[in-house]
Amino acid sequence: MKCILHVGAHKTGTSAIQMALAGYDDGSTLYADLGDPNHSIPIQTLFSEDHLWAHWKRMGLSEQEHTALIKDLNRKFSGNFENRHDRVVFSGENISILDISSLKRLRVALEERGADIEIIMFVRDPLAYRVSIAAELVKQGETDVLADHLMSIRQRYHNLLSVFGKRPAVIKYEEIEFFNNNIVEVFSDYVGIDASRLANSSLRSNSSLTEDAFKIVLKFNKLGITHNKGKVLSEARWAFVRGVVELLSSKRPLNKKYFVQLVNPAELEFLSQLLGLGYGKYEDLENGEDFDSYLNDISEQAVVDISQFLCAKGLAYDYKSDVDAMISILFYYFVAEEFQRSGVLREVG
Q: What are the beta bridge partners of residue 120?
């Protein structure tokens, strides 16, 4: 059986691909079922040294529940090979950042089930990647937008080559220009799946932060308000992020010139020389000199947009003079909404 491992990389439309392929089975090709369309966490749980215990502990699982989860994931993993399809597809961007030992365990598990492994990895312009990863860090609650703790594409590529003994097929994310700007159609064309059979093939499941939204969510992160303790606060935070994006009238994207300084020259050289991908023509972008001032400059229109929303909800205040208060109150509004939606208030009552 052919096994296609789609390993990301991060910020190359993996979420859209995973959501579009979820449940796909045309009799020949099966999209693997591991309980989540994104196979990153399930595969990390199965094959990492500690079975991702720290993550599941934060999620509230006991050791006994964690053990039961691993057993259930093993059952699901094996089940994808039982109906003898011609191909099975796994997709998870975190597969590409597994360490060597974890990748070896994954390879053994696949080969024990008769899999002939093919690896697919999308890459994108390093500058666009740095802008996108900064937005993702902010969405996740980080305050250091300059950080990028993910393994380099060069290291991922060499780890995969070392463990699986074959070169990953590398596809430029920018190929979407030839497929109606739809990453799902790019993937489907490469692996030979009829994209028209995917009901949600045009789905964009990972919406981008606009410039104003990025700055407001970043400012919220820096306020230090507790937002990651328990399910209710976590859900409220994501509702807050979505709400900020929807409330702001300006859809201006982040200014790339401020991120040129973050591009790793070694990564550019690897993509250019070894993979033959022509990236790095940034000469037409002037370097943004004052990054901090840019990040702290929230537009007047953004303040107006959010102020009008809060006033309409009966939360009138002079927000122009206290943007921190405006952002805090907007978050607390979504906390109250989540308490109401989840039924926690009714339980307390």
A: 6, 169
Does residue 217 lie within any of the structural domains? yes
Residue with token string 């859209």: 16
Whole-angstrom distance, CA of residue 163 vs CA of residue 249: 48
The pTM score is 0.83
Report the candidate in 156, 253, 159 with the shortest Cα–Cα distance to residue 208: 253
Strands (DSSP E) contained in 145-284 are: 169-172
- CA 154 from chain center: how many Å? 20
Instruction: Tell me the C-alpha distance between 144 and 141, whole Å.
Output: 9
Range of the domain at 92: 2-197
Residue 181 falls inside a structural domain = yes
Tokens representing 163 are 């463990």
Domain count, the chain: 2
How do residues 112-158 score in pLDDT, each as one tens digit? 999 999 999 999 999 999 999 999 999 989 999 888 778 999 999 99
- From CA 97, how far away is CA 115, in angstroms rounded? 21
Distance, in Å, from the CA atom of 294 to the CA atom of 263, rounded to the nearest integer, reads 18
- CB burial readout 154-188, b (16+ within 10 A) else e: bebbebbeebbeeebebbbbbebeeeeebbbbbbb
CB of 233 closer than 8 Å to CB of 339: no
Beta strands in the chain (DSSP E): 2-6, 29-31, 87-91, 116-123, 169-172
Same domain, 175 and 306: no
CATH of the domain at 34: 3.40.50.300
Q: Measure the CA–CA gap between 319 and 306, rounded to whole angstroms.
A: 9
Domain boundary residue among 197, 224, 258?
197
Question: Is the same domain home to 80 and 172?
Answer: yes
The answer to whether position 98 is within a domain reads yes
Q: Which residues contact 214 (CB under 8 A, 6 or more apart)?
A: 134, 135, 138, 254
**Structure token digits, residue 249:** 């009238």
Q: How confident is the model over 7-16, as pLDDT tens digits?
A: 999 999 999 9
